[in-house]
Design goal:
The protein is mainly alpha-helical and about 220 residues long. The chain is built from 6 helices and no strands. Helix content is about 75%, strand content about 0%.
C-alpha cells in the first residue's frame, strides 16, 4: 500500500502528515507537563533546604520497599511497552496486544501498591497532612508536615497521570485487537509510548525525593 493510500483523517493531507502532527502534539504536551512537574520539584527542594530535619523525619516513615518495587515495576512496564512497539513495527499485532496486556497489569499493580497499600498505611499512621491527629510533634513537626503535603500532592498527581496512561494503553490494546494498526500505520502506539515513558521518568525523580534523600 502506498503512502497516499494509508487511512488518515480528512483534515490531513496524508497519513504521514497526521502522524507527524500527532507526535508534535504529544511532545508539546510532555514539554508543558515537564514545566509543571519541574516547578513542583523545585519547590520541594527549596522547602527541604529550610526544613531539612523535618523532611528527613517524614521520609524515614515512608515504605522504602513499596517505593523500590514500584520503581522496578514502572521501569519494567516501559521496557515491555517498548517491546510491543518493536513488534508492531515488524507487523506482529498479536505480540503488541500481549505486551499491552502485560503493561496494563504492571500499571494496575503499581496503583494498588501505591494507593491501596501505601496510602492506606500512611493514613493509618496519621501522616496525612490534613489529619487533626498528625503524628509529628515538636520543633520539626512543621517540616514533616510540609514533606507530607508535597508527598501526597505529588503522588496524587502522578497517580492521575498513571490512570490516564492506563486508559491509553487499553485503547491501544483494543485498537490493535480490532486490527487498526499495521507495520506502516501505528502512530497511536508510539504516542502512547512517549506518554508512558514520561510518567515513568516523573516517578524516577519522585522516588529519591520521597524515599532515599531523607534516609542518607
Amino acid at each position: 500500500m502506498s503512502e497516499a493510500a494509508l487511512p488518515h483523517s480528512f483534515q490531513y493531507t496524508s497519513a504521514q502528515h497526521q502522524s507527524d502532527t500527532s507526535m508534535a502534539g504529544m511532545w508539546l504536551f510532555v514539554a508543558s507537563e515537564s514545566l509543571f512537574f519541574g516547578g513542583l520539584f523545585l519547590a520541594w527542594v527549596f522547602c527541604r533546604h529550610f526544613a531539612q530535619k523535618g523532611f528527613d523525619e517524614g521520609a524515614k516513615d515512608t515504605e522504602l520497599w513499596i517505593g523500590t518495587v514500584n520503581t522496578i515495576i514502572l521501569i519494567t512496564s516501559s521496557l515491555v511497552y517498548a517491546t510491543g512497539l518493536a513488534y508492531i513495527r515488524a507487523g506482529n499485532v498479536r505480540r503488541l496486544v500481549q505486551c499491552c496486556a502485560l503493561t496494563l497489569g504492571l500499571g494496575l499493580t503499581f496503583l494498588y501498591l501505591k494507593f491501596g497499600l501505601e496510602w492506606m498505611d500512611d493514613i493509618h499512621k496519621h501522616t496525612f497532612f490534613a489529619d487533626p491527629a498528625f503524628k509529628y510533634t515538636g520543633p520539626d513537626a512543621g517540616g514533616a508536615h510540609l514533606f507530607y503535603i508535597f508527598y501526597f500532592v505529588s503522588t496524587a498527581l502522578h497517580g492521575v497521570h498513571m490512570t490516564v496512561g492506563i486508559g491509553l494503553v487499553v485503547f491501544v490494546m483494543w485498537s490493535a485487537w480490532r486490527g487498526t494498526f499495521s507495520s506502516r500505520s501505528h502512530s497511536a502506539v508510539e504516542i502512547t509510548g512517549i506518554y508512558w515513558s514520561f510518567v515513568d521518568m516523573v516517578w524516577i525523580i519522585l522516588y529519591p525525593l520521597i524515599y532515599l534523600i531523607g534516609r542518607v
